[in-house]
Amino acid sequence: MPSRTGLLQIGQVAERTGLSLRTIRFYEEHGLVRPTSRTGGGFRLYGEDDVARLEVIKRMKPLGFTLEEMQELLALLADLAERPDDEVLVDRLRMFHEAATVRVHALREQLAVAEGFAADLAARLA
């Protein structure tokens, strides 16, 4: 349940995002997300923007984006929120979209190979 201030503790963020506490701390250590604030006792408190950043990271991870690429896209998305008509930013976002699309196609090909292998094994069991 959110705290009085509307901020979430790390466990609540982990529950909402499906990420482990360790993973959230790892992304914090690498500068991808920072708690909005801390309690007097030092507990991390996250806002909705922090949760949204973690959701973007979570979606980039299976596509094999590096931490640096994640950081770049997160900064780009923040810049685009302030300047949505900036053509340079839009072009950079277009490049990320193309990279994501290529990676999705590669994953689909890998999945097809894996499914074929599993079907071959199933046929041997029959």
Total DSSP helices: 5
Query: What average pLDDT do the residues reach?
Result: 94
Largest sheet: 3 strands, antiparallel
Strand % is: 5-15%
Approximate helicity band: 55-70%
- Low-pLDDT ranges: none
Structural class: mainly alpha
Strand order of the largest sheet: 1-3-2
Order of helices and strands: EHHEEHHH
Q: What would the principal axes of the Cα set say about the shape?
A: flat
Distance between the termini: 50 Å
- Radius of gyration, whole Å: 19 Å
- By DSSP, the count of extended strands is 3
Account of the protein in words:
This protein is mainly alpha-helical and 126 residues long. Helices cover 67% and strands 6% of the residues. The protein is built from 5 helices and 3 strands. It has a 3-stranded antiparallel sheet. Strand 2 and strand 3 form a beta hairpin. It is flat and about 60 Å long. The relative contact order is 0.09. The mean pLDDT is 94.
Salient structural properties:
126 residues, 3-stranded antiparallel sheet, 5 helices, 3 strands, flat, mainly alpha
